[in-house]
């Protein structure tokens, strides 16, 4: 059943989130937008989040939803720097205090409560604690990534613990935000555990990203808005750009890199070593409004991760009507149709990536057409109205 935009479902959401603090990133941006978009479609929401040492008061005050900050084992956080496996203990402490608050709120709020938890491990812990304490409130989990905890040995340990807890007490549903990383494998694991799940997707305010004409009057501007961490492989982006300059002689080109991260200094050194510092700009973290302006000026947006480029950076560019060039790691072709609304390149193939940049540089109309096609696809498949309907469908399965 597709809901009318103005339908209001008689449920009250208790949202439990560990990572809820001022930071620029795809996951927190998605969460904030989802909370705002769904608010008019439910009876109400409360966010339960940790009381971090950093001041979150301004961050919380601009959020239209009430945020209740609670204590958690903050003294364990510094131990993470020594690569000790303390994260599950930190999450457990937060989960215990969250359930204490949920017990209180359950007595004050309407009957149709749903607990919506961000993160599989936290959700599994809260769900089991609710069962132990005989608190009968349905719980749904959102997992931001279908490959939730394979990026390090510590996270793999957390995954094993989460799956063990889920096998003991199952949530009503797990909503898996498909970012292209391992959706099939993760789904098979959940199926074996007989856990109901469904994939969901990033959504965007398409009216916010207004396409601009691509004319190269300000030069050929290549843009990346990805984090500067190892996962994103920005070193490959720089090598592809250097090769593009060699084969095209594009003296009018600039590569703008908006983002920060642990790779910043090594990437700056690589730029100097390749002698391209005069045409590469590291502009740091940018707000959503600033990203929009960078997208308006961009000729093409690129993604060079060897894991997944099905992220907000790529999809925001498509919303803005820009041609995108990305490595195809196996999931990107579910988002991008090669040659129609972007260009897909074999993972790690620097020469092919440079050739793709050359195509867009030499053929303005090709880039313009790809961008228009990308915008049409995002309007059709990634609207917030459609995305919120997915959430409401899961809530309706509980309360009808």
List low-pLDDT spans.
1-5, 148-153
Largest sheet: 7 strands, parallel
CATH class of the largest domain: Alpha Beta
**Structural class of the helices, strands and pairings?**
alpha/beta
H-E order = EHEHEHEHEHEHEEHEHEHEHEEHHH
Q: Give the distance, in angstroms, between the N- and C-terminal Cα atoms.
A: 11 Å
The CATH topology of the largest domain: Rossmann fold
So what's the overall shape?
A: globular
Strand content: 15-25%
Q: Work out the count of structural domains.
A: 2
CATH architecture of the largest domain: 3-Layer(aba) Sandwich
Give the mean pLDDT. 89
Helix content percent band? 40-55%
Supply Rg: 22 Å
| CATH homology superfamily of the largest domain | Glycogen Phosphorylase B
- Strand ordering within the main sheet: 3-2-1-4-5-6-7
Structure, explained:
With 400 residues, the protein is of the alpha/beta class. The protein has 2 domains: 9-203 and 383-399, Rossmann fold; 220-381, 3-Layer(aba) Sandwich (Rossmann fold). It has helices spanning 26-38, 57-61, 87-108, 120-132, 153-168, 183-192, 234-248, 264-273, 288-297, 312-319, 350-362, 364-381, 384-399, and strands spanning 9-16, 42-50, 66-70, 113-118, 139-144, 173-177, 197-200, 220-224, 253-257, 280-282, 300-303, 323-327, 343-345. The radius of gyration is 22 Å and the shape is globular.
Helix and strand topology:
Blueprint: E1 9-16, H1 26-38, E2 42-50, H2 57-61, E3 66-70, H3 87-108, E4 113-118, H4 120-132, E5 139-144, H5 153-168, E6 173-177, H6 183-192, E7 197-200, E8 220-224, H7 234-248, E9 253-257, H8 264-273, E10 280-282, H9 288-297, E11 300-303, H10 312-319, E12 323-327, E13 343-345, H11 350-362, H12 364-381, H13 384-399
């Amino acid at each position: 059943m597709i809901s009318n935009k103005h339908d209001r479902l008689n449920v009250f959401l208790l949202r439990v989130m560990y990572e809820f603090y001022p930071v620029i990133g795809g996951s927190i941006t998605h969460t904030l937008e989802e909370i705002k978009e769904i608010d008019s479609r439910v009876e109400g929401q409360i966010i339960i989040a940790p009381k971090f040492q950093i001041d979150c008061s301004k961050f919380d005050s601009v959020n239209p939803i009430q945020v209740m900050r609670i204590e958690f084992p903050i003294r364990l956080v510094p131990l993470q720097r020594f690569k000790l496996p303390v994260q599950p203990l930190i999450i457990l402490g937060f989960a215990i205090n969250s359930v204490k608050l949920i017990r209180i709120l359950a007595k004050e709020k309407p009957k149709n409560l749903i607990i919506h938890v961000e993160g599989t491990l936290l959700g599994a812990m809260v769900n089991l604690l609710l069962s132990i304490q005989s608190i009968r409130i349905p719980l749904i989990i959102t997992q931001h990534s279908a490959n939730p905890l394979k990026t390090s040995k510590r996270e793999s340990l957390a995954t094993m613990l989460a799956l063990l807890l889920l096998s003991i007490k199952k949530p009503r549903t797990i909503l898996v935000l498909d970012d292209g990383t391992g959706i099939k494998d993760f789904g098979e694991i959940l199926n074996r555990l007989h856990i109901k799940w469904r994939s969901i997707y990033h959504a965007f305010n398409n009216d916010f990203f207004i396409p601009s004409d691509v004319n190269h009057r300000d030069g050929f501007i290549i843009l990346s808005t990805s984090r500067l961490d190892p996962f994103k492989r920005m070193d490959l982006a720089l090598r592809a750009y250097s090769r593009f300059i060699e084969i095209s002689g594009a003296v009018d080109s600039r590569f703008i890199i908006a983002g920060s991260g642990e790779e910043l200094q090594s990437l700056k050194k690589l730029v100097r070593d390749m002698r391209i510092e005069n045409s590469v700009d590291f502009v740091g973290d940018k707000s959503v409004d600033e990203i929009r302006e960078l997208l308006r000026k961009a000729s093409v947006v690129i993604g060079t991760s060897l894991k997944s480029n099905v992220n907000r950076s790529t999809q925001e560019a498509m919303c803005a009507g820009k041609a995108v060039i990305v490595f195809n790691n196996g999931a990107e072709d579910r988002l991008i149709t090669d040659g129609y609304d972007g260009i897909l390149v074999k993972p790690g193939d620097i020469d092919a990536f440079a050739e793709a940049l050359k195509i867009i540089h030499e053929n303005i109309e090709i880039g313009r057409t790809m961008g228009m096609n990308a915008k049409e696809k995002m309007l059709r498949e990634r609207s917030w109205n459609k995305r919120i309907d997915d959430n409401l469908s899961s809530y309706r399965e509980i309360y009808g």
